[in-house]
């Protein structure tokens, strides 16, 4: 993403792709690090130029996760699902995730965005760090064999291209039903952490903005919580 955002400043066109064989400073959401060893995964970013408003960025991230999951389901036969906002999951373990970063103009519209994908492709079980062993997996581990990274790359880029075109045309709306079919959180309880304390609530849907919709009647306050 960092390299691609620099290229975007020099005028590179929408659809420009930056691919890494390894990342030494891979990152995920909210500053988390991302384990991306040499030749074991797909570490790729795609440039999108758009005049959409900045608030649509969250929903673009969700839409991209849905599109990539659908592509991986076809190419692998695995029941790949999505965990809001942008994780790719198989049987409660994380296969990969997306990170969308952008540059906005003074009026709040997006000048360009970098859609980054980190996907564990041929990472072996014994190569997964101990602290991630119960939470992370790879296509190779799930399938019991190595996978062509080139074939996965081709599938992912096609899925993202179609996603960008559909998102530009219709926004998040056309992805909401597809998200419902693939979501691992729909109907489940999630933990909300905030200044007033922790709350638990049930996920009932996804909004056109890409935000989760929760059942207010199901909210339960944890320790340190305030009123209902």
Biggest β-sheet, characterized?
6 strands, antiparallel
Low-confidence stretches: 224-228
Assign an overall shape: globular
Head-to-tail CA distance between termini: 41 Å
Proportion of strand residues? 25-35%
Descriptors:
single chain, 228 residues, alpha+beta, 3-stranded antiparallel β-sheet, disordered C terminus
Q: What would your notes on this structure say?
A:
- Strands 1-2-6-5-4-3 form a 6-stranded antiparallel beta sheet, with helices on both faces. Strands 7-8-9 form a 3-stranded antiparallel beta sheet.
- Helix 2 crosses helix 4 and helix 2 (57-76) crosses helix 5 (173-182).
- It is globular and about 45 Å long.
- The model is unreliable at 224-228 (pLDDT under 50).
- It has helices at residues 2-9, 57-76, 139-143, 149-170, 173-182, and strands at residues 17-20, 41-49, 81-83, 87-90, 93-104, 110-120, 189-194, 197-206, 212-221.
- The protein has 228 residues and is an alpha+beta fold.
- Helices cover 29% and strands 30% of the residues.
Q: Outline of this structure?
A:
With 228 residues, the protein is α+β, with helices and mostly antiparallel strands.
What layout of secondary structure does this protein have?
Elements lengths: L1 H8 L7 E4 L20 E9 L7 H20 L4 E3 L3 E4 L2 E12 L5 E11 L18 H5 L5 H22 L2 H10 L6 E6 L2 E10 L5 E10 L7
Antiparallel strand pairs: 1-2, 2-6, 3-4, 4-5, 5-6, 7-8, 8-9
